[in-house]
Specification:
Keywords: Signal. By secondary structure, the protein is mainly β. It is built from 1 helix and 8 strands.
């Protein structure tokens, strides 16, 4: 009798686990659509970048997912913010150290994610990063 009861409890636990509310990781937060200031984050292509999607966080809250060459505009309140992120790997997630950005209503801030010498990092830029232009074919 106890064996049948144990089996029923185990089956119920497995079935109910599927009904539990799962929180999505890496989903953009709705509150970055409006705010006093603008922070633009760009995933800059580099030779040592392996193409992994980077999940951007602002003050520890997921904001966006960026593939190579993509940019995202995040609207945040004026003040100091930590823009960082993480990348998912086969063994878990790798956290990338955040950069401190102080925003003001009169100017936009630009943050770049780059991989230099196999070291991922976020850095604040003085102006918008320039993406390399595609080579143009000469007219025939």
């Amino acid at each position: 009798m106890i064996h049948r009861f144990s089996l029923a409890v185990a089956a119920a636990a497995i079935v109910l686990t599927g009904c539990a509310k799962h929180h999505a990781t890496g989903e953009p937060a709705e509150n970055f659509a409006s705010g006093d200031t603008l922070v633009t984050v760009t995933h800059v292509h580099d030779k040592t970048d392996d193409g992994t999607t980077v999940f951007v966080t602002v003050d520890g809250t997921d904001a966006a997912a960026l593939a190579i060459g993509q940019s995202v505009d995040l609207h945040v309140p004026a003040g100091a913010h930590k823009v960082g992120g993480y990348a998912r790997t086969l063994i878990g997630r790798v956290t990338i150290a955040p950069v401190e950005v102080t925003t003001a209503a009169d100017s936009a801030k630009h943050v770049a994610y780059t991989v230099t010498k196999n070291k991922p990092a976020f850095s604040e830029l003085s102006n918008s990063p320039k993406q390399p232009e595609q080579p143009q074919n000469p007219p025939a």
